[in-house]
Amino acid sequence: MSTNRVALVEAALDRFLDEAQPSSRILDPREPLRPGSGLTARQAIEVFEDQVLSRALDVAARELKRQGRGYYTISSAGHEQNAVLGAQLRPTDPCLLHYRSGGLMMARLRQLPGATPSFDTLLSFCASVEDPVSHGRHKVWGSREAWTPPQTSTIASHVPKAVGMAFAIGRARRLAAANHTRPAVEFPGDTIVVCTLGDASVNHASALSGINSARYARRRDNPTPVLFVCEDNERGISVETPRRWIRDFFAALPHMRYFEAQGDLDEVWDATATAIQTCRTTRAPVFLRLSCVRLWGHAGSDVETAYLSLDQIEAIEARDPILLNAKRLIEGGAATPATLRAIVADARDRVGAAQEEAAVRPKLVSVSQIIAPLAEEAPERWSVAAEARVDPEIRARVFGGRLPETVATPTRRTLAAHINHALNDAMVQYPELLVFGEDVGKKGGVYGVSQRLQERFGAARVFDTLLDETTILGVAQGAAMVGLLPVPEIPYLAYLHNAVDQLRGEACSTSFFSDGQFTTPMVVRIASFGYQKGFGGHFHNDDSIGGIRDIPGLAICTPSRGDDAARLLRGALAMAKQSGRIVAFLEPIALYHERDLQDGDGDWLSDYPAPGGPCSALLPGEVGIHHPEAHELLIISYANGLRLSLRAARRLREEHGLNARVLDLRWLNPLPFDAVREHADACAAVLVADECRRTGGGVADALIANLAEGGYRGRLGSVCSVDTYIPLGPAAELVLLSEDDILARALEVRA
Length: 751
Known about the structure:
It is a single chain. The chain is α/β, with parallel strands linked by helices. The chain has 3 domains: 3-361, Rossmann fold (3-Layer(aba) Sandwich), CATH 3.40.50; 390-591, Thiamin diphosphate (ThDP)-binding fold, Pyr/PP domains (Rossmann fold, 3-Layer(aba) Sandwich), CATH 3.40.50.970; 624-750, 3-Layer(aba) Sandwich (Rossmann fold). The strands form 5 sheets. It has a 7-stranded mixed beta sheet. β2 and β3 (148-151) form a beta hairpin. α2 (41-66) packs parallel to α12. The longest helix has 26 residues, at 41-66.
């Protein structure tokens, strides 16, 4: 909407204050605005101050944008009644907020002495590095002190994370008590988590998933004190929300209380107070519909006259909450027109002066500044943590006196067994570690990888979730933010695609948009890749990792052998614990129970590497090398491809007299370019055997490009799986990378 429209709305407030007559009776500041209301005259004036300050910031945002000095114009204008939430919630109640939360934040930060919310917001508008939340990376509402993790979501993808946090706060407290320690992050016992969202975004799959999982938790008697606040302005950009849509849909849902806050300021206050108190006392999800209007369009670029008539726009502006609140305060005797006029003038003057200062504050000026919070590299700290000693007495009890590295012959085990052992050790080393997902509890995982974990460590630490990957990753984020160390399981790589934005848009962006003040450390175990026999098809055999390799800050590793699996898992957990990193741990399904390199030789079994000490963990950059004496050809691969490459290398030697060194990448992000370069330079040719699809699926392109651009002088080649979904049954063998494919391409490259 044009600047003229903004001026008209502001002029309507000024005109009213100039013409209004004071009430015949002025209330004592301690008196309620209405008999029986919980809102006092003093509180009402403070809320009005916060609302006016929010509005002044919205006006400043438009002006800064017009001048080319500001970069954000999605305003809170018309949503200022959310200030009643900020006034009534505690700074220790975590808030994950909708982007129209100006009033709420002004009122929330009023509770923190020394806070400067208006100037901080202006710094954010101007993308200044001095913005105390994101340090110039984005306009966000956030505060470490006020427990407000920054959100940029416009589609409610923060809802599952809010539910996860509500679920995890009590669990973290109980786990700490059981271990006779204090929680890593302490909250009062009646803390609630607040999640605000719009009436349009509430329809998004992420929102519905999160709300459903909160109700599911209530049905299972799991305390989940989350307050969903739908700020209903009756429109999503140009699309009108059907009348009573929010009420008709959410009011009747079982296992969640529903409230509405609308009408005069005191009525909104009292309804909000009831919703908050209900959530506190019942420890269960509550849904509050907060009636709002949206002034001035979705953002500065949104021209409302394209979809609304002038009469409709003026009718909306007549419902301006600040104007209506001013009338209510004067008529109720809480304030005089002169008092409110002074509040408005003071807010405008303060914001006007502050915006000039904020506009000239420094900006981000280097790539290193921008990416600093994305992916901390701390190999020394990781190594110390990953190689830490695990209490032998506790280990002995957990393993029933038969430690996996000392059990009588035979000690060699499969990849699945090694991951299970490593998870047991990790549960001992990290008392705050949780393992959860679909079927991981009583059943012990679809492939038995988490067997007996729940029996040994209890259902508070090892538990089943509902069948929803979005919820699983939401719970992981919430748990991580309150000091736990989550290890969620996604049963198949293809299932991750249903929920990948929980990694891309939420978990991996949290540190970035908070400059590392909030992190979501976790290790996401994902049963991955193809080559299953007798059970498959695309949804259980997925050979594409392109959808996660491009997520900023996400580390990805994949084992090919059991001993490597245990060591990689320790490295991944150390990265998460020490640096707040998010690691995707891709477990090759087809290798879970594989025993042989060649038929019947047992060469794919390995001894369990005991935790503690040098070489007990693997970190980024550490590769595996087979046949290091070979110099004619380097074959680079990972996971299933490593086993296929070793089989092909044997045939190359026996059938063609060609010796091949084989390199196991282990880490797919970051790729170990230095190690690859070192071994490539020692060989006459390089072949990348990538079991993922050629087009955007795997790592072959990146490896070949890096070698070529670095001046590698030998022959380069790659071989990949076919660009297709994987069919069911034996037909899968026609499209997946095979031993014969590697052999044939190796001969071509070396020719």
